[in-house]
Amino acid sequence: MPTSQFQVTDESWGNHYHVIASDGSGEHHLFIENSPFSKTPYDIAIHDGPDIEGRIVGLSKFRRFSSNCDVKLHDDEDWIPMLKKGLISTSYSFEMFVDGINHKLSWKKTRSMGIGASAYGNSKLVDNESQDVLAVFSSDPRSLVTGQLNIRGDHGETFDHMALLTGLVFREKQRRQSTRTARAGRDDVLTTGAAIGGAGGGGGC
């Protein structure tokens, strides 16, 4: 059984997400501010509470012209690099202290773990040295980002928030890439169609 569970849902409009966190003793609300188009100094912010007015307990900024990004839990902390590994089967790695020891962790896709089957696939957070699975993010059938994050083991609130933040970053990176790929495909179709139409028109003159 997971020690902590985060249920991630999206808004009926906009790009933001709502989270209900539960650990067996009750529920707590978090708000995920997702800013893919704005000029804010961050791309993702986790707010403690049901809306954007809550204090920030997690931040991520995506590097421009790079697949890498940076994360941190508080404004006064240094940024922690979250680095992309691999081309086909990608993962994102970062370092943090877990139970007083520095660990290298990676988010990876998984087909064998998680709840239910989704076309978008599920994800797991793995300790690079021991290969222990510390968390599993199960996708909703209709979305890359929404779903359920289950934390395995009791490593404290800091770990839980970092697992949530980095898990959301991993999923949001995939969502934005899928959106760009789909948009590029539509542009190619429109460009090709215009070229064919232009050529056909010329032949008719």
What does this structure look like?
The chain is built from one helix and twelve strands. It is α+β, with helices and mostly antiparallel strands. The protein has a single domain (4-191), classed as Tubby Protein, Chain A (Alpha-Beta Barrel). A twelve-stranded antiparallel β-barrel has the order 1-2-3-4-5-6-7-8-9-10-11-12.
Roughly how much helix do the residues carry, as a percent range?
Answer: 10-25%
Rg for CA atoms:
20 Å
- In the CATH hierarchy, what is the class? Alpha Beta
How many domains comprise the coordinates? Answer: 1
**Major sheet description:** 12 strands, antiparallel, barrel
Features:
twelve-stranded antiparallel barrel; alpha+beta; Tubby Protein, Chain A; 39% strand; globular; 12 strands
Question: What is the topology?
Answer:
Blueprint: E1 4-10, E2 17-22, E3 27-34, E4 44-48, E5 56-62, E6 69-72, E7 80-85, E8 91-98, E9 101-110, E10 122-127, E11 133-139, E12 147-151, H1 157-204
Antiparallel strand pairs: 1-2, 1-12, 2-3, 3-4, 4-5, 5-6, 6-7, 7-8, 8-9, 9-10, 10-11, 11-12
